[in-house]
Amino acid sequence: MGVPPANRLLLVSDNDTIREAVTEAVRDPPDLRLTTVETPADARCHLAATPADCLLVDAHAGTDSLSAFRDTLRAEHPTLPFVAAVDTTRTLPSSLAVHATIHTDSLATLPEVVRVLTATARRTDSPAVSAEHS
Question: What's this model's pTM, rounded to 2 decimal places?
């Protein structure tokens, strides 16, 4: 049995404090690889060239609408888990479908959130075994 693949986390944030906190939260786990970009447009360019297993988006990043960005990503990468990082002063619109939210003041749980979401996405992408017999 080989080494499990690293979970590739793409962070979208133009906030240095958030970027530093996320970097610190995922520094030690050997199964996480972090890449950061500043804007939703940068994320789309990055994802066109390099796959990611999970996307963490600072709800305040860039000028694009978070809902529009999520809709675009859903069309381009339908199985990519989308996590919104929010602070306690902001609530997300109820119409915004995300896989998880995480508060920026509790990023210590981020590695486990990424592991659970990527494991679930990988199982969803795996071909199902047919129960039918000839």
Answer: 0.80
